[in-house]
Structure formats: C-alpha cells, structure tokens
Design a protein that fits this description.
It is a single chain. This protein has a seven-stranded mixed sheet, with helices on both faces. Strands 13-14-16 form a three-stranded antiparallel sheet. The protein has 13 helices and 16 strands. Helices cover 39% and strands 15% of the residues. The protein starts with a strand and ends with a helix. The chain is globular. By secondary structure, the protein is an alpha/beta fold. The structure holds pyridoxal-5'-phosphate (PLP). Pyridoxal-5'-phosphate binds next to helix 3 and helix 4.
Length: 381
C-alpha cells in the first residue's frame, strides 16, 4: 500500500490542459481568467461579488482592512483554527480574543462568544471571525443576531467549506460564504483544500462598497476610477496604501476547472465521511452534524484517548493522519504576547484527543478500509 496522506489535490488532464492553454495565451496575470474565475465562484457560492487573491491569508488581511480594523481594536475568533484566522488581526496591531469551542461540533461556541461579549462594555469588540472548521458550516444566522445586538461585523473564515451549507430558521439553505449573514467570507485554494490553485484564495461579499475596497487594496491601492485628475490614457492614482495580493491567470485557469469538480468532490467527501461514521458508530467520537447542515468535509475529525499512540501506529502503516489544530493561544508567539494564562477548556480537551483522518475524493475504498481497520485494531488493543 502506498503512503496515504490526510488530504490530497485531484488534478486531471482537463486541469493541465487549461493551464497550458493559458500559458500560451496573451496574459499570464491580470487577464480574462481572473474575472471568469471570480464570476463562476460567486455564482457557485451564491454571493454578489468575489475577489480572487493570492492566498487566503492575504484575503483575511484585506478583510480586516476592509472592515476598518485599527490598532488596539478587539476581535473574537476560535482557538481551533489555522493561525491565519487570528494573525490577520495582529497584522493591523489589533487584539485577538478567543471564545471556546463547542464540545461536539468543534466550532466556536455561540454561548461562549455571547458570554465574552456580554462580560465587556458595549463597543469593546469590533468583530467576530467564525470559522467553518473542517467544512462544518457555522450557524451564521445566530451569530449575525448576536453581532447585530452589539454592532459587530462578521468575517467568515470559510477556507474549509466551499460547498457546505446550513439551513436558516426559514428553512432556506445558506451556502458558506454566500454573504447573506457575514460581511465578508474567505476561501483558500491551497492544494490540501477542495479547490487547488497551488496558492490562491477568494473573498466573497454582497456589499458593493466592500467589493470596491477589496479590488483597490488587492492591487497597491492603484486605480483608474474616481480620479481627482487625469493627465491622459496612461494616468492612474494610488488612492490608498494597498498590496500586490493578486491571483494570476494561470492559477485562475486551474481554479475554474477545479471549481467545476467541487460539487461532485464534496459529495465524494461526504460518502467517505459516511463510511467512517458507520465503521466507528459508538466506538469512536467524531464531529457532530447539526440538523439541516451539510459538511463540506475538508477534514474528517475524530477524538481518541491515546491520540499520540494512534498517530504513531498509523504512521508505521504509512497512514499520515494530521492534527487540526494546536490551539492558537498556546502557540509561542501568542504565549509571548500575553495568552499564556488563557484557559479554554473545551479547546484544550479537544486538542488532547483530536485527529484528522485521510479525506479526499480520490481516496479509494481499499485505502479507506485499510485506514479503518488499522484504527479499530489500535483502539481495541
Ligand atoms: C481556516 C483557515 N484559514 C486560513 C488559512 C490560510 O490559507 P492560505 O494557506 O490560503 O493562506 C487556512 C489554511 O490552512 C485555514 O485552514
């Protein structure tokens, strides 16, 4: 049996042909493929606007700038996510506050977030960055209600969840990142995610104002629109201090063909998840699935008592499970800036037991059965 990773891209000849075609075309970057990818992505997700960016970390940076976050201002997120979800707040010298997670869904807890907000005077926090962790959609309707009570914005970190949805109180399916409840949402196209661009990402929104700001900041703050003067056809203005966070046409061409496969890919991921669930049923705890929710399953997460033992045992069998995530407040950078004493009981308990199992559309039945057999064998030892 060849090594089995926890995640893997699925690149087909169609993807390769699309990239070659772009390499032979007139534009390698800032050409027609970027806008085509943005339009197709917005249509798929159901948002009004989509802005392609060079990675989701850059997208998160642009998102906090778009929401106007400034030095010393405070934002709440979850400790069980990739560091980038919190780091974006630090990029503008903001303060990160962590709410604890729910024990069963592993998502940021609404109650813990509410408690944190209500323990401080009004205006203390500026926003919330909830994460659709592992691909499981946050109930953004509930978070929006809480945010509106306190005048907060919401940036949805949907990096794990293109294709996931929750059902709102009116019975309507709400796709992750569709912009109906969050101000902005961020997706990642790192190869281990659903859609592989090498590096890449997308910011989605329903706000025209945010959309324009994102476009400006993505490309140096330079524009040819709404200029205060115009010296001729060459003229442009730099109206803000922006960045080069652009995605290339080459990557966008790949993104377009990858996106076309995502619906089927998420279906396959769910079928793999069902097989795991059937095999583990009452033996091993796995991430819960709230009613009306469709998990996009970037990951399949379990909890086991002897996590390190199982991790090493699987490696001996060439199965490369992974741990998502080391709680952010315990990372050395965050400890050093004052989070050393923070206690987030559920997050720490979860981290002591969690493990992400192989989950990707091309995982074969034979490989998955091999993984399941090794796990059941280990837990019954
Ligand atoms: C939840 C989450 N947010 C943000 C990121 C950052 O994504 P990128 O690697 O595209 O910058 C990741 C990547 O792992 C992630 O998992």
């Amino acid at each position: 049996m060849k090594p089995i990773p926890y995640g893997r891209q699925n690149i087909t000849n169609e993807d390769i042909d699309a990239v070659i075609e772009t390499l032979q075309a007139d534009f390698l970057t800032q050409g027609p493929k970027v806008k085509e990818f943005e339009d197709k992505f917005a249509e798929y997700i159901g948002s009004k606007y989509a802005v392609a960016i060079n990675n989701a970390t850059a997208g998160l940076h642009l998102a906090v700038l778009t929401m106007g976050l400034k030095e010393g201002e405070r934002v709440i997120t979850t400790p069980i996510t990739f560091a980038a979800s919190a780091n974006c707040v630090r990029y503008v010298d903001g303060e990160v506050w962590f709410a604890d997670i729910d024990k069963d869904s592993y998502l940021i807890s609404l109650e813990s977030t509410r408690k944190l907000i209500e323990s401080k005077p009004k205006g203390f926090f500026k926003g919330i960055i909830p994460v659709d962790f592992a691909g499981l959609p946050i109930d953004l309707e509930a978070f929006r209600e809480l945010a509106d009570e306190h005048g907060l914005w919401i940036i949805e970190d949907a990096c794990h969840a293109p294709g996931g949805y929750f059902t709102d109180s009116k019975g309507v399916r709400q796709n992750c990142g569709n912009g109906n409840y969050a101000d902005l949402a961020i997706f990642s196209f790192h190869p281990v995610k659903h859609i592989a661009c090498g590096e890449g990402g997308m910011v989605t929104t329903n706000s025209e104002e945010h959309y324009k700001k994102l476009l400006l900041l993505r490309s140096h703050g330079i524009t040819k629109e709404n200029m205060s003067e115009n010296h001729g056809g060459w003229f442009y203005e730099m109206q803000e201090l922006g960045f080069n966070y652009r995605l290339t046409d080459i990557q966008s061409a790949l993104g377009i063909t990858q996106l076309a496969k995502n619906k089927e890919g998420v279906k396959q991921r769910n079928s793999i998840a069902d097989t795991y669930k059937k095999a583990f049923s009452d033996k091993i705890k796995f991430q819960s699935l709230p009613a009306g929710t469709y998990n996009a399953h970037h990951l399949f997460v379990i909890e086991v008592e002897n996590r390190k033992g199982l991790y090493n045992y699987l490696r001996e069998h060439q199965i490369f499970a992974q741990i998502h995530y080391i709680p952010i407040h315990t990372l050395p950078y965050y400890r050093e800036i004052g989070y050393g004493d923070a206690t987030l009981t559920n997050a720490e308990e979860y981290y002591s037991k969690c493990m992400s199992l192989p989950m990707y559309p091309t995982l074969t039945k034979k490989e998955q059965n091999f993984v399941i057999d090794r796990i059941l064998e280990f837990v019954s030892l």
